Amino acid sequence: MAGSDVNDVVGESLPSLYQRLDDLLGAISAAEASLCSDEQLVAVAKAHERCVRRMGVLGDDVLVEVFDRGAYRLTGCTTHQMFVTHELRVTDPVLRLRRMEKLARFTAMTGERREPEYPNIADAARRGELGAGHVNAVIEVLTKLPQGLPHDTKVAAEQTMAEISVELTPAEIVTAGGRLLAHLDPDGELTDDRDRKRRRNLWLNRQDAQKMSKLCGHLDPSTRAMLEVVLNAWGAPGMNNPADPQSPDGHPDTADAQQLADAAARDDRSGAQRHHDALAAFLRAGLDANILGSGHRGLPATVVITADLNDLRNRTGSGTTATGTVLPIGEVIDALARERCDKYLAVFEGHHAVPLYLGRAKRLASRGQRLASFASPGGHTCSFPGCGQPAARVEMHHAVRDWADGGRTDIDQLAPACPRHNRIVGKGAGQYTTGKAFDGRSWWRRNSSPGVPENPKLVNRFPDIGEKFVENLEQTRRHIHRPPPEPDRIPGDSEIERVLAELLDDLLRDVSPV
Question: Where is this region: Disordered (predicted)?
Answer without folding.
Answer: 237-272
